[in-house]
Design goal:
Layout: E1 6-12, E2 21-26, E3 29-33, E4 49-52, H1 55-59, E5 64-68, H2 74-77, H3 80-86, E6 91-93, H4 95-107, E7 116-118, E8 125-127, E9 130-137, E10 144-150, E11 155-158, H5 176-185, E12 189-193, H6 210-219, E13 224-227, H7 233-245, E14 249-253, H8 255-266, E15 277-278, E16 291-295, H9 305-310, E17 324-327, H10 336-348, E18 352-354, H11 371-381, E19 385-389, H12 393-405, E20 411-412, E21 419-423, E22 428-433, E23 438-441, E24 449-450, H13 452-464, E25 466-473, E26 485-489, H14 496-511, H15 515-518, H16 521-540, E27 545-546, E28 549-552
Parallel strand pairs: 3-5, 5-6, 6-7, 11-12, 12-19, 13-16, 13-17, 14-15, 14-16, 17-18, 19-20, 25-27, 25-28
Antiparallel strand pairs: 1-2, 1-21, 2-3, 4-23, 8-9, 9-10, 10-11, 21-22, 23-24, 25-26
Helix pairs in contact: 5-11, 6-7, 14-16
């Protein structure tokens, strides 16, 4: 490889869903595309969110020129506060995306110290060695862009999340012509969204849900509770239009839904007929058949408005017998338990529940391209190198196969988080790895970042419990003042005989220790822990967390 090459370095999103973050480097200039988070799997006990390990960016902070955002979903902007706390660089995004970012940074008291720069489709701008042109794409939220990045080596196109919708509700269609223009000029590399690579055909337009939703509005006799992702502005607009058509007043309930709809209204993405909206406190002033409640909480989040309404614990949203609750969203993997728990509670209220169980007709459509749309874009751009992004390993692998099957791609390259892919005008090669991985954030703690040992300890506690051997030592004589006590929490299998023997083990450890050892609490704690661990494992086959407590008197 010549020295003049571009490096693509994924720091998140290639090998998992969420946490999207891609570094693009040429010489001493680094661009970062997206700064997402992911929500933790169940084994990450007590962790609130997971963000990418940005050690590479921190080590090269002098070269990072900015963070470019493709759109405002959490898996693309949610990691910003943590990344900006390490590297304070300008953030580029469209108007709607930056409105979301402002709220997030304000919450973390970082807004005043961050430079936010608005970008718009078809308006080129320069950052270091790169010339960037945002290209209008459609997705499940508004104001999304792909990025065409001109480098001295060639053009790199990053699609962000997309589907090809030529008639979205806001009239701002997917810009096929601009992609075709770049295809004619020549594209070095295409980084394409892999999310729906296992779905054949095309993803339906946002409008496709309207006929089925219209039927629901028509046959609902009492209150209608309409729930969707708060960022799904298209879906919210369709719901508002249908409420107006069917003579229903609309109350918005839930913090995220209120914030999103206010931002969208302020920026002109939501058009509200006069007199449509009412305050949640006015719901009871109208007859049930004339009310729609737009409510957040489609994923069963424990403190969301819908979860609280489902157990009669919301100030304004009361779900009564005969009301209809419509969940116009998909079930995000990992959230099934919490969602179905809420649905169970709703059934207890004797409400009618409509959700995407495969039998309801079209009440939700995906925001990601299916196979034929992916092929169409590949055929338009005809890249030399194809790199799939956003997905588990199997999605990336299948996407490479799909790209090669089009016959227009020079080479399909599968890379994962931490891989360094070097591109020249004619060649591509993997050139080692950088530090990449996951950083666990426990936002309720003072330390924020949760290390591997903390996760391991939490897992041990949840599985095998804790044992606290408590002993009292006279610090002058080194003698044990009373019989050691063994306290357990969450430790099963410990009958009285086992605990008595555990106390004897502690006494034996003390008897076999020198006066000098007894005078050192640190040494004694470790000796007791090791001897107890050996005994407990042998007799109960369990590995509880053992934390000796020595009281000096």
């Amino acid at each position: 490889m010549a020295e003049e090459n571009v490096k693509l370095i994924p720091l998140g999103g290639l090998g998992e869903f969420g946490m999207n973050c891609m570094a693009v480097r040429y010489g001493n200039d680094i661009l970062v595309i997206d700064a997402g988070l992911m929500f933790p799997e169940s084994e990450l006990l007590g962790v609130d969110i997971v963000v990418p390990d940005i050690s590479y960016l921190v080590e090269n902070r002098a070269h990072v020129r900015g963070i470019l955002l493709t759109h405002g979903h959490e898996d693309h902007i949610g990691g910003l506060p943590w990344i900006l706390s390490e590297i304070n660089v300008p953030v580029y995004g469209t108007e709607f995306t930056l409105a979301y970012v402002e709220g997030k940074l304000d919450e973390h008291k970082m807004l005043d110290n961050t430079e936010l720069i608005e970008i718009a489709p078809n308006h080129k701008f320069q950052i270091g060695a790169f010339t960037i042109e945002p290209i209008r794409v459609t997705h499940s939220m508004v104001d999304c862009v792909a990025l065409a990045i001109e480098t001295p080596v060639g053009v790199i196109v990053h699609t962000g999340d997309f589907k090809i919708d030529l008639s979205p509700p806001d009239g701002k269609a997917f810009d096929l012509h601009k992609f075709a223009e770049y295809g004619q000029k020549g594209v070095l590399a295409l980084l394409q969204d892999s999310t729906n690579v296992d779905r054949p055909g095309y993803t339906p337009s946002e409008w496709a849900v309207k006929p089925r939703l219209d039927e629901v509005f028509q046959r609902t006799k009492k209150k209608l509770f309409f729930s969707c992702f708060s960022s799904s502005i298209y879906r919210i607009q369709i719901a508002l239009d249908l409420a107006h058509k069917h003579g229903r007043k609309v109350a918005v309930v839930g913090r995220s839904m209120m914030e999103s709809s206010e931002i969208a209204q302020d920026l002109g993405y939501l058009n509200l007929p006069p007199g449509l909206m009412i305050h949640p406190g006015q719901i009871g002033d109208h007859s049930p058949e004339n009310v729609m409640v737009l409510i957040s909480g489609t994923q069963g989040e424990p403190m969301s408005a819908l979860s609280r309404a489902a157990v009669d614990n919301h100030k304004h949203a009361r779900i009564s017998k005969g009301d209809t609750v419509l969940l116009s969203s998909r079930v995000i993997p990992g959230n099934e338990k919490s969602i179905y728990r809420v649905i169970d509670h709703l059934y207890r209220r004797e409400a009618e529940i409509l959700y995407d169980d495969g039998t309801m007709g079209l009440i939700h459509v995906s925001g990601h391209a299916s196979q034929e749309e992916q092929r169409l874009l590949i055929n338009l751009l005809r890249p030399k190198f194809f790199i799939p992004v956003h997905g588990d390993f199997r999605h990336l692998k299948k996407h490479c196969e799909l790209a090669l099957s089009t016959g227009v791609v020079g080479e399909a390259i599968l890379i994962e988080d931490g891989d360094v892919l070097e591109l020249s005008a004619t060649k591509a090669r993997k050139a080692g790895k950088v530090t990449a991985g996951r950083v666990c954030i426990d936002s309720g703690s003072t330390a924020d970042v949760v290390g591997d040992m903390v996760i391991r300890d939490r897992r041990n506690l949840s599985e095998d419990g804790i044992i606290l051997p408590i002993l009292t030592i006279n610090k002058l004589t080194g003698k044990v003042e009373r019989q050691p006590e063994v306290v357990t929490r969450g430790f099963i299998g410990a009958d009285a005989a086992v605990l008595r023997e555990a106390a004897n083990i502690i006494t034996q450890t003390l008897d076999s220790s020198s006066a000098e050892e007894k005078a050192d609490p640190g040494v004694m704690k470790e000796k007791i822990r090791i001897d107890l661990k050996r005994y407990i494992q042998k007799h109960t086959s369990r590995r509880p967390l053992i934390m000796p407590v020595i009281l000096e008197v």
